[in-house]
Design a protein that fits this description.
heterodimer, A: mainly alpha, about 0% strand, B: five-stranded mixed β-sheet, 17 helices
Chain lengths: ~300, ~575
């Protein structure tokens, strides 16, 4: 077990290193650099700037310096939010994205599993049909549409009620989080619903279910102990990558609801060629994703005793 | 409950559904628990916006949205408008602009400016928010810091009228050589490199703001990065700055002119760039002002909100690449393109953004001339679309270039939806009227700048916003020595006229020179001026005394006050 975890961690470090390296070189090969400004500066000033930030050195040397600093846990200073350490920016912004992400994934996970189970129980009857139509909508409609519609919904609701039911945007209390988290989780919820439904239906005809039935085990117990628990397994598998996707993919939602999260920081950094912030957030996200996948594998073993970690 | 009867296969087992309902109930409970936990975690982290009302009479404050986090509040290094807006509220230079854009005494109470020197007499009742007095040394220190090559300021050029400033920036001289000296704590003497008739107008710009040396050095390089890493000498102080979510300004009680500040707090409660979300905040009375985009106009009208317009001062134009190897270096080709353009069609039928004004000259209408407005005194070159003439120009161009068919042109532009629509309009226009194929190259901001600088384009959609309130802020844009002349346009007569305007102290001579510049730009089709940008916005009537400007702090709430609506 320990050996397995260690192995996975080593693999994870290599993956993160690979992500960092590719990002670094791709980023530097794109035309434009963070020092360019709308108002042009003379060549001499440009040189002064490049020297200060070490951009005058060959890319491979810059890469070496960057990696050395990164190993020591220093992501450098932001180019655009000048003099602010990237470590600090991540430390400020990530908790926000994480809180939103946790809530979204819980909504998505619970919703997905329960709706999925429901559709499987009511297979081919009206609840099934209605939910599946919603699922198709949930998968195909992009999140910025949900975000805008969700926000407009709050505006209309507040207007009609005459008092503030939920805040339109901002961050700080639980009320600020509900709609953004729901919007963020919708896509994943739809996807998980479909997965859970398929998984449930596959299991209905499994041998062990038939055995249980012939033994005379109560239906509710079959559902709870055999069908539901087994059906959840594939859902848990995709939960890992989903957690990372949701936590990191919140850009649109963060933007519409004025949430100071890391997803927004990341996209803005890319738009502004803020090298150090791009690298910092990419490496951080990469490490986070790798970690989540490992955690999910471990959880898998807890849920399903047949899986032994080797 | 024991269900002993085997349910028929096709029907739904109620007991299973019951089981599921139990799960749902469980999930719901867990959810509530989680929400409570997260709630306290968020509160504990102390990040977030308070849901204040747009206008709060009790605390005499307003709430606003800020388009982005201010990137740089170290005034020697700021470059952007958001930082400029905040600095304009919390800092004060030698002068400041009043509600009608007139020059008002700031930290300086009076001044004498002659051709090459200036003396500023500073008030003795101006203090920084930490209690230390604002002195002439603070200006000398800030200006020296801005031109110091070590500071790497991108706006140091705005200090170049000061004697030796450029030489210091170019590492030829030491910073102490700068033409700014504190004769005593409250007298500042300035020497100029050459006569600069518009020098006084530069002083309102943020690079000219004072900085207290002792405090600056105590921050160890963090000056301006956090609320506590700044001291203030303006109408407001930053009392709270949560990066990315909130910036709160409160009345500065050490400000010398604090009686003129009527609001107790300005809360930038949201940092949000999405236009529709901003309107939603306005609709629910969370903020007092919101910009309107074309898609939101209808909604504003339907709600009966008062729509206001504002000229933001910028001029947008198509820039040509004048590098020799590019077809656009041919004057006849440029003239041909100029002749098919119709700015009114562009502004009213294509862009349809309310507030925009068809462009006629690089000098926008609000610039001051000799006595009144420059454009009233010196009208812009007359332009009318003329397809026939355009075709003649094109034929001449093809002969000169030795081509049998029109060249393909690369149109460099931004990555927004607006840019697409704009570029496609020209693609169509040039194809239909002149048979010129246009390839649209959409790039994000930094890449676009890179391509503009290296000359990888034929036509670029560009714009220019003013730095100071004088014709030269636009006039010197296409001189051969200006690094912003990224298309490398070169015209000796234009260069000479700009030099005249830079050095002459006679307003009429200066304006005549600038009149030549607007005509040269048109005759040579160096650029095609498209429109002067305007914007529309909605604003809460309960807030009065807000100043909108083309140059400087905009919008300016320093003198804003609240008015209680009359009860019905």
């Amino acid at each position: 077990m320990t050996r397995y975890v260690l192995m996975r961690l080593v693999q994870g470090v290599i993956t993160v290193w690979f992500i960092a390296t590719v990002t670094f070189f791709v980023m530097h090969s794109i035309p434009g650099n963070p020092l360019l400004n709308e108002k042009a500066v003379s060549d001499q000033v440009q040189e002064q700037l490049e020297k200060k930030y070490g951009l005058d050195k060959p890319v491979i040397v810059q890469y070496g310096i960057y990696m050395w600093n990164m190993i020591r846990g220093d992501f450098g200073l932001s180019f655009k939010q000048e003099e602010r350490p990237v470590n600090k920016i991540i430390a400020e912004r990530f908790p926000v994205s994480a809180i939103l992400g946790i809530l979204a994934i819980v909504i998505a996970g619970m919703g997905g599993i329960l709706w999925g189970a429901l559709t499987a129980l009511y297979r081919n009857r009206w609840p099934d049909v209605v939910i599946i139509i919603l699922v198709i909508l949930g998968i195909s409609v992009p999140s910025f549409v949900f975000a805008t519609v969700g926000q407009l919904g709050i505006v209309v609701a507040n207007r009609m009620l005459g008092f503030e039911l939920l805040p339109v945007a901002g961050w700080g209390t639980i009320w600020h989080m509900l709609v953004p988290a729901l919007v963020l989780g919708l896509g994943t919820m739809a996807f998980l619903t479909r997965l859970m439904r398929t998984s449930m239906l596959e299991i209905v005809n499994a041998d062990y279910i038939r055995t249980a039935r012939s033994k005379g085990v109560p239906v509710a117990q079959i559902f709870a102990k055999h069908q539901f628990r087994n059906a959840i397994l594939p859902v848990v598998t995709v939960l890992g990558p989903s957690i990372a996707a949701i936590t990191t993919g919140g850009f649109v939602v963060e933007n519409v609801f004025a949430i100071p999260g890391l997803g927004r920081t990341f996209v803005e950094a890319v738009q502004q060629s803020d090298y150090t912030v791009i690298m910092g957030t990419t490496v951080f996200y990469g490490a986070f994703l790798v970690l989540m996948v490992i955690v999910v594998d471990l959880v898998y073993a807890l849920i399903d005793p047949r899986v032994r970690l080797q | 409950m024991v269900d002993t009867v085997q349910a028929p296969k096709s029907s739904v087992s109620t007991s299973s559904v019951w089981q599921l309902v139990k799960y749902i109930f469980l999930a719901f409970t867990l959810m509530l628990l989680l929400l409570t936990c997260l709630h306290f975690v968020t509160l504990g982290l102390g990040i977030g916006t308070e849901s204040n009302a747009a206008v709060d009479f009790e605390s005499n404050s307003i709430t606003l949205n800020l388009g982005s986090e201010p990137p740089q509040l170290n005034s020697t290094r700021s470059t952007d408008m958001v930082s400029g807006q905040i600095l304009g509220h919390v800092m004060e230079g030698l002068i400041r602009y009043g509600p009608n854009n007139e020059i008002l005494p700031g930290i300086a109470t009076s001044w004498d400016i002659s051709e090459l020197t200036g003396t500023f007499y500073l008030r003795e009742d101006a203090y920084w928010s930490n209690g230390t007095p604002v002195t002439a040394h603070d200006f000398v220190f800030a200006w020296q810091t801005a031109v110091d090559p070590e500071t790497k300021s991108q706006y140091a050029f705005i200090l170049y009228p000061l004697k030796n400033a450029e030489a210091i920036k170019s590492e030829i001289m030491a910073v102490e050589e700068l033409g700014a000296t504190a004769l005593n704590d409250y007298t500042l003497q300035v020497e100029l490199e050459q006569p600069t008739p518009y020098f006084i107008k530069l002083l309102a710009f943020f690079t000219y703001l004072p900085i207290n040396r002792e405090f600056y050095e105590s921050t160890e390089g963090r000056y301006g990065t956090n609320a506590e890493d700044l001291i203030y000498n303006g109408p407001f102080v930053i009392s709270k700055w949560q990066h990315g979510s909130r910036l709160r300004l409160e009345k500065n009680h050490t400000y010398w002119n604090k009686d003129e500040t009527r609001l107790d707090a300005i809360d930038f409660g949201y940092i949000l760039s999405d236009p529709t979300a901003t309107i939603n905040l306005f609709a629910t009375e969370k903020i007092v002002m919101a910009g309107l985009q074309a898609e939101n106009i209808e909604r504003a009208l339907a709600n009966g909100w008062p729509i206001k317009e504002h000229v933001d001062g910028s001029v947008f134009y198509l820039g040509f690449n004048h590098r020799e190897e590019r077809p656009t270096s041919n004057r006849n080709l440029r003239k041909a393109i100029q002749m098919v353009c119709d700015q009114e069609e562009l502004v009213f039928k294509v862009l349809k953004t309310p507030g925009n004004r068809p462009g006629e000259s690089i000098f926008p209408v609000w610039l001051k001339g000799v006595e009144g407005f420059f454009r009233d005194e010196y009208p812009a070159p007359k332009h009318e679309r003329n397809i026939e003439l355009a075709k003649q120009y094109l034929n001449n161009a093809l002969n000169e270039l030795g081509l049998s068919e029109p060249p393909r042109l690369m149109f460099l532009t931004g990555d927004s939806e607006f840019s697409t629509k704009h570029a496609e309009y020209y693609q169509n226009l040039l194809k239909q009227n002149l048979g010129i194929e246009v390839r649209i190259d959409q790039q994000i901001f930094q890449q676009r700048l890179e391509k503009m600088t290296s000359g990888d384009y034929d036509i670029v959609a560009a714009g220019w916003g003013p730095d100071y309130d004088d014709v030269l802020t636009f006039g010197d844009l296409f001189t051969s020595w200006n690094a912003n002349n990224r298309g490398l346009f070169k015209n000796d007569e234009l260069d000479q006229n700009v030099q005249i305007a830079q050095q002459s102290s006679d307003p009429r001579t200066r304006m005549e020179a600038m009149d030549r510049v607007q005509h040269i730009l048109y005759e040579e089709a160096a650029i095609i001026v498209e429109y002067e940008r305007g914007s529309s916005y909605v604003a809460d009537d309960r807030v009065q005394g807000v100043t909108r400007r083309a140059v400087g702090t905009d919008p300016d709430f320093t003198r804003a006050y609240l008015v209680k609506p009359e009860t019905e």
